[in-house]
């Protein structure tokens, strides 16, 4: 009898897809109010350091071959750096944002105005409260939509009707993870990474059913906003402190690109918060 040598399971070959992103330089970044558990005005913030970290994030995207557009920052809007919240762009159509807190309400019109002027004329100004890609994450066949803290469930239905894509509602229950993009990110177009503790029992069951091969993050990595990451199918731009998650991604065949956004984390933001994807 001939015994064949054992073979190691091969690591999947991941393919990167060139993306187009919209970002906003944090020239006016400050923590002057508290609208999520990460924000503490008394602790202060350093706008210069925030700009340096943001510039490194933008440079990482450019080095990976992605296109980065810039929207001009507006004085008095310290959170405008978090471009992901400004809209949801799918199939060239723009579902605008309507912010929960008045401190950020002017950001929605600023982003939709820019998008209209830069090749995205098909814009829906929403009736229902939603915070753009903060709570809407797009995969190949479905849009995952968060609720519980910021975005109304009615906005999920509004987005589905406008975009013609199925939308799956997921309920967030931990105030540290007030947006879906703080607790979950797409891995390419068919899988995700997420932290189960951020979701209601029913939503965890939905995620287990939809994504049986998901990358599961622990609380320590979630607590440094390790899941506020951006994946192009192969490369994952991720907060450097999420070391266990970075190792797990590498084992799955992804190429982590660690970045330091510790200053912007003082306002509850990470790489994804700073990045609005413009999907044609």
From TrEMBL:
Taxonomic superkingdom: Bacteria
UniProt-recorded name of the protein: Amidinotransferase
UniProt organism field: Actinomadura napierensis
């Amino acid at each position: 009898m001939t015994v064949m040598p054992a073979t190691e399971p091969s690591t999947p070959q991941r393919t990167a897809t060139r993306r187009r992103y919209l970002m906003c330089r944090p020239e006016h970044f400050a923590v002057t109010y508290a609208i999520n558990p990460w924000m503490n005005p008394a602790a202060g913030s350093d706008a210069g350091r925030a700009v340096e970290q943001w510039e490194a994030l933008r440079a990482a995207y450019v080095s990976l071959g992605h296109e980065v557009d810039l929207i001009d920052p507006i004085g008095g809007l310290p959170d405008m750096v978090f471009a992901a919240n400004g809209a949801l762009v799918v199939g060239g159509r723009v579902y605008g944002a309507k912010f929960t807190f008045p401190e950020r309400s002017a950001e929605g019109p600023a982003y939709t105005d820019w998008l209209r002027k830069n090749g995205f004329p098909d814009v829906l100004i929403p009736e229902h409260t939603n915070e753009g890609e903060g709570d809407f994450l797009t995969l190949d066949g479905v849009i995952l939509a968060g609720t519980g803290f910021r975005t109304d469930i009615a906005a999920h239905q509004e987005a589905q009707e406008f975009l013609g894509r199925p939308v799956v509602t997921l309920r967030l229950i931990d105030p540290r993870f007030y947006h879906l993009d703080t607790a979950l990110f797409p891995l390419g177009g068919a899988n995700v990474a997420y932290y189960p503790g951020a979701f209601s029992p029913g939503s965890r069951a939905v995620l287990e059913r939809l994504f049986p091969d998901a990358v599961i993050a622990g609380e320590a990595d979630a607590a440094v906003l390790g899941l506020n990451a951006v994946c192009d199918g192969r490369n994952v731009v991720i907060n450097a402190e999420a070391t266990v998650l970075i190792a797990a991604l590498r084992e799955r065949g992804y190429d982590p690109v660690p970045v330091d956004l510790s200053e912007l984390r003082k306002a509850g933001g990470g790489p994804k918060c700073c990045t609005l994807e413009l999907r044609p």
